[in-house]
Design goal:
- The longest helix has 19 residues.
- With 74 residues, the protein is mostly helical.
Length: 74
């Protein structure tokens, strides 16, 4: 995921909201997932946040797309 946010929102807050909202929506639509994932927890408590620095957004997007294609080999 590649996003830009207002500096008033910390990365921790953004991740917490994204994980919370997606969990609620998925568990509402697929209640059986609660039995399959970590005792009802969809997400692990960890996450990674990095900065792009002087790298262009196009380079970051291309890197993310390459990771999506390479994930089948993991």
């Amino acid at each position: 995921m590649f996003l830009s946010a207002n500096p008033e929102f910390s990365p921790t807050m953004i991740v917490k909201v994204l994980k919370g909202v997606t969990s609620l929506q998925l568990f509402k639509k697929y209640p059986e997932l609660k039995n399959d994932y970590w005792g009802g927890h969809l997400w692990s408590p960890s996450y990674y946040v990095g900065t792009a620095g002087k790298v262009t957004s196009e380079n970051v997007k291309r890197y993310i797309e390459e990771q999506e294609h390479n994930s089948s080999t993991i």
